[in-house]
Amino acid sequence: MTDASVRVDVWSDFVCPWCFLASTSLDKLEAEQKIEIVWHSYELRPKGSPPMPETYRQRILAARPQLDALAQEHYGIKLTHGPLDVDSRAAHIGMKYAEEQGVGKAYHDAMFRAYWQYGRAIDQQDVLLDVAERVGLERDAFVNALETPNYLHQVVADITQAQALGLQGVPAMIFAGKYLVSGAQPYEVLNKVVTDVRARLVSSV
User: Fold this and answer.
1) Do residues 57 and 113 make contact, with C-beta atoms less than 8 angstroms apart?
2) What is the CATH number of domain 6-203?
3) What residues contact residue 15 under an 8 Å CB cut-off, 6+ apart?
């Protein structure tokens, strides 16, 4: 029983820097602990949102040096920011298709890196196709998937579930369907959470 797998449901958006940093902690956690990570879509700026206010844009730009320093110091990652005001919906739709094809993790990592380490506009079809082909997805099939209602419905279902759970920001991680952890927590924190959750699961049996 002490080896029981712990499910971790994670809501995130590809254009969220904290989600990218959290994903690197989760990668390390997955290598060390017996967990099942299930990624869910979330849109910080849903499709059809009005243009980003200039004051908010300037605030984001002003905070970049501090964010870059934190990423380098605590995660060993050099950030190269993608453009602001990117619509991430197509990237999320592609993720659902990639998961169905068995390359969800590779696609997820590649899409994050395309935006946060290569500074690419992940709402552009050529960028999406480049990521898809890099993880082994066939070009025409991927294009068709982006227009397939079923994958869009899965994305919308994730967002609806987040709203029902009262999640108001990402990354949001729910361990064993009960314990919510928010923000870009370092590996050490997440490792302790899994250990504590597993102990609770064992003691409740």
Assistant:
1) no
2) 3.40.30.10
3) 44, 45, 82, 86, 88, 115, 122
Q: What is the mean pLDDT of the chain?
A: 94
Query: Taking residues 24-43, what's their average pLDDT?
Result: 95
Packing angle of the helix pair 17-32, 104-116 (nearest 10 deg):
140
Handedness of CA 190, 132, 118, 42 (dihedral sign): negative
Residue at token pair 């200039």: 54
- Condensed to tens digits (0 to 9), the pLDDT of residues 1-14 reads 456 789 999 999 99
- Edge-to-edge, what's the strand order for the sheet holding 172-175? 35-41, 6-12, 172-175, 179-182
Residue spans per domain, the chain: 6-203
Helices (H), 76-180: 89-100, 104-116, 125-134, 139-146, 149-165
Q: Cα angle vertex 191, ends 189, 195, to 5°?
A: 120
Amino acid at 103: V
Spatial distance between the Cα atoms of 162 and 159, rounded to a whole number of angstroms? 5
Q: Is 48 left (phi over 0), alpha (psi -120 to 50) or beta?
A: left
- pTM, entire model: 0.93
> How far apart are alpha carbons 44 and 87 in whole angstroms?
9
